[in-house]
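Here we describe the complex-level prediction in full. Unlike the single-chain runs in Section 2.1, the three entities below were treated as one system.
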Amino acid sequence: MQYHAPATVKDAVKLLAASKGSTQVLAGGTDLLVRMRSGFSEPDTVIDIKRISPMCKIARDGKGFAIGAAVSSAEMSENPALVKAWPGVVEAAALIGSTQIQGRATIAGNLCNASPAADSVPAMVAAGAKALIRGPKGKRKVAVEKICKGPGKTVLKKGELVEAILLPAKPARTGDAYLRFIPRTEMDIAVAGAGVCLTLDAKGVCTAARVSLGAIAPTVLLVSKAAKALIGTKVDDAALDALAKACSAAARPIDDKRGTKEFRIHIAGVLARRAAIIARDRALGKS
Amino acid sequence: MFQIQISTSINGDDTEFSCEPDETLLDVLRDRLGMTGSKEGCGTGDCGACSVVVDGRLVCACLMLGAEAQGREIETIEGMADGTELHPLQQKFLDHAALQCGVCTPGFLVAAKSLLERNDNPTEEEVRYWLAGNLCRCTGYDKIVRAVLDTAKDMRIPAKANKPAAKKRVKA
Amino acid sequence: MNFQPGKDTLKREFKTVGTRTPRPDGLDKITGRAQFGADMTAPGMLWGLILRSPHAHARIKNIDTSKAEAVNGVHAVVTSADFGPCPDDVLDVRENIMARDKALYDGHAVAAVAATSRAAARQALKLIKVDYEVLPHVTDVDEAMKPSAPIINNKLFTKGLDKTPRKPSNVAERFEFGHGDVEAGFKQADLVVERTFKTEATHQGYIEPHACLASMGTDGKGDIWCCTQGHFMVRQVCSALLGMDASALRVTASEIGGGFGGKTTVFIEPVALALSLKANRPVKVVMSRSEVLRASGPTSSTSIDVKIGMKKDGTITAGDATLRYQGGAFPGSAVPYGAMAAFACYDLKAVRAVGYDVIANRPKQAAYRAPGAPMAAYAVESVVDELCRELKLDPLDVRLKNASSDGSKASYGPNFDVIGLRATLEAAKAHPHYRAKLGRNQGRGVACGFWFNFGGETSVSLNVSADGTVGLSVGTPDIGGSRASIGNMAAEELGIPHDKVRCIIADTASLGYNDVTDGSRVTFASGLAAINAARDAIGKMCERAAGIWGIPVDAVTWEDGAARPSSPNAGKHEPLTLADIAAQAGATGGPISGHCEINAEGAGVSFATHLVDTEVDPDTGHVKILRYTVFQDAGKAVHPSYVEGQFQGGAVQGIGWALNEEYIYGEDGRLQNAGFLDYRIPVASDLPMIDAVIVEVPNPGHPYGVRGVGETSIVPPLAAISNSVSGAAGVRMTELPMSPPRVLKALGRI
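The structure predicted for the assembly as a whole is:
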């Protein structure tokens, strides 16, 4: 195996494009090193991006944010402006693994690992985040929900890497939230997860919403029917019931060691309902 | 595989080693540097027994390549006591019988120290969540949590002002 | 000089015993310098790795190791062919540490290599070609008992039946315990409840994986340095498997990072020794966490029927249980212990417990803290709880009404001596926890538990140094602070400060044989032996004093750490302290030591009562532990902090077992969750503080009244939590773990 720690994005892309055999980008490494240890992944080349200083920063991107691909979830929690703007995304990132994991894990890595159960991904999808991709042919921006094609598979092409996650400017009276269900209180992979981002008008009526679900399909789902259940309502009990129903209907999970199909279908609705209440309260400035 | 030459700082000591590119920091510490205080309980970041601090950030040494240590500042359990003076957490772990078999203890101490450096007045819940990545199978965590809370209480007492500044720099 | 149970009076006033002294191994463990199993290295050491079967059941047709042997850096490859004939009592161990004709479970070892680096060893493992013929498998206990089940061992004919069957099966043995007319008892009952329960296998979950360093020379002498609960056991088994003289093998116990019963047998030690013999170099073998879960010794999974009859006033008229435990691919599950312990908390006129020891395609079970008892108590205490709820009776009152007490006939045969069950029940009843208010979706559970405790073969040496300090060598590895408690008992008996005694774990060449650290025996048995050894040394010191004073030895007595004339008639002599006598030892006859070799009896049985409050989230099935209190009889708590620690640790392991821990096998018979990510032991944020109430009903079998405390604490939690959740959810839970999908299903929400 070869280990490279380039100092610029340009060099990283060059190395990626030129590498032979299997190549892995090393951000936090909290998934990659586990895969390497189990023998599941035996890369010929590892490209460590943590020496690329712009990728280690959280920058303002207009009125939004550009979160460098090497920024750990702990660093996100320590950025007051980001926490204020996108608490759902920050909290989702802070659910990944333990304190130790959060000291390393990145949301770009979480995305590129392409697990359907990745905690930060539904939150990013709900928030309308985009991945800034850099490759031999330049930059492109892709909506986060379009990145994963299936478990472990992304749309990234040879030589490409995610440089940053772009979070948009948050509209007024907008709140986001992410909840997941795990059997313990910490340290587990989500059995199901739900992200909700909604905008209210001055009267408290929902004018826009994005609802996403994790761990209930091969990829994280953006559920437009669930969003429709909220839009035009005051996010009251009836709307929340409709939201939960739409989420359970959209779920097409599997049975596995972490949960049963029927449990996941049920819990998807419960989580979306609870997340929507938090998002609504945030939009109302209650929390 | 060609070995990589690394220069780093461990507990304030300049340290050089060479390692395979795919070798973890934990393997380097234990097998190349003889620093066996960091333990391997799982090798997958699930137990925290290999907790170390890298540039002020608490991490699992099993989830970091040795090669990544270049130019970093690493703190391990072996550097926690200042010479013959134990860190207050170490003393409290003894006083509270916060260890039984002791294999998870280095990881807990390193993790708890990292907590108290950020938050000198944590609630019981904050202690429990911060330490959720450190598994202990003997104690049921009760005495560990008490030891950490009691240390925080003592460290908040003004005597703190008379103590020499912490030897290790912490970047937040 | 040895303590004579029933004759000698028990000591009740203490100076050191009962105090919270610092532990002797504390500093090493908080500074990272304590050496655990994987921390030892040796010059020229090789790394050993083990190849394991990916199949649950497969015939091994051929193993080709030639390509592995050719890898640069590889110095030895071993298979079952390297383990020759051995005595019958270790045949199953031989087959478990290295598969012979068949791989019997996912993870069963089939070959091993030793190489100069782990990378070379890994590469070599990949090049070993094993030709398997995959066979049908069975992992569930009830499935394994069916006549149609795949037969795992065609030489296994059920023992314990009136007539040995002609056809082999997966049922190794039937056991039965009890007394009285059970059917007649049920007729006297006002209410009879009968239920079937299932529990999944769990793992001890010690944080330190198995690790050893073995060094074997061509001269036939060997050394093993390993984390084990019994280094004498390691010596015995490894020497038998390798055909060595037992005394040619020296085993040193490293610090041990948790055992809980899982390190009372060998897995990698004989393999490392065989590799070392072949390579003529030291070999280190360390299991990965995945290997630990797949291929060490988890518990049985079980299926249990319980039927209990009760009168309206709470009198239990009869109890009947059938317990089916699969113990992995070899006979020897803990079902007899489960059957014996099932009704031990109750003084019953009519009781029966039948156990079936079943084999299945899973790793051979090892002991786990009160092996076999938690599942049996879960089933029995659940039915008692249901009867109490149906008859609207207080669960503590009903238990007090039926509790075993001093002299009552145990459900497994003998009559109890002085026991503390009632005292724990009364303590629970008087505790504020029992009267605390509960909120919505909350429930309170009560359960009792019993464990036999054990004494066993024990050897201790106590050496008095010239400066008046004492070295104490014991042969029972310290898994939770026992060096502190044993050292304190020796200090108490000698009458010197605790910090003048240093207790260490000696290697197998330095002491007589010691049974493993199990059965909650160490503080009891090594403590008893240490007290006896101290008395032996005191006798010798009194002789020295008598010589110095020129008076008969029976005119000398030992009090407060000094020899004194026993009466004014003996003359006027200033007391000679231990240090005074030690300083003159050379001139008065040479070194002074005390010894004790004993097969300790009189380990008092132990009981506990647990109280737990839980809250169930009716939308997700998640269970939160709100409050937990343990009441347990310690006889005499030698070191109260570590007694509390045993109570708390056992309770939390029980919480894990009750809620989230389980072995999950796929259709293919492979373990699905071989890691701490998905084998979910409790984390700090899952729990409240665990209140530990120490009850002390002295054990007449120990000079200080000590009872073992290590195991009983894991017996009640499964039932207590299930009873609590059943109360909170309003529906009887009958399957463990009570994972959220199971709870939600029981609630009828999915």
